[in-house]
């Protein structure tokens, strides 16, 4: 009876660890796959812990491939699990040149950033085609009919302005994804990831500034939990 009770206790402890890691620390699981198995952010994005033993962690990649990551030195009891997984994550953070601060939310524009976002969005909309600045279009007939010279100017610069914005903002969004989202383990192609990337594509610099604010807020929360 005592042996069965011990086995049940071990099984329950093991399941609690698996559930906790999957629900609250997927960012660590992603880093494990990237650092210890050297998977890409794409392949590691849906990391899922399926098993844990005193000797290793078994994690599924986004492709459904199972990867065993050794726990060194091996644990002797489940009470050591928290210390070991934290230490492993610390090594992964350093090895990847990443941050132990994970951003899990999107912060929308506010104040002057809202004005910039709306202005950029309207510019994309208006300058997406030359026909918008020609008679017969809703935009021309509604807003530009009385200023034909300005409409002609906009028609001339339309392809230059539109493609300049697209190229510049694609570059900014790519840099945002690499320098911030990947560094702070925002899961690739998740809802939050798309919101930051698309926001950066529309407005540019403002989204990077708000992301940095989120990082500082998370740092403050982590520091507060230590006291």
From TrEMBL:
Source taxon at top rank: Eukaryota
InterPro entries, per the entry: DUF2470, Haem_oxidase_HugZ-like_sf
Pfam family for this entry, one: DUF2470
Domain DUF2470, chain residue ranges per copy: 14-88
Name assigned to this protein: DUF2470 domain-containing protein
Native organism: Alectoria fallacina
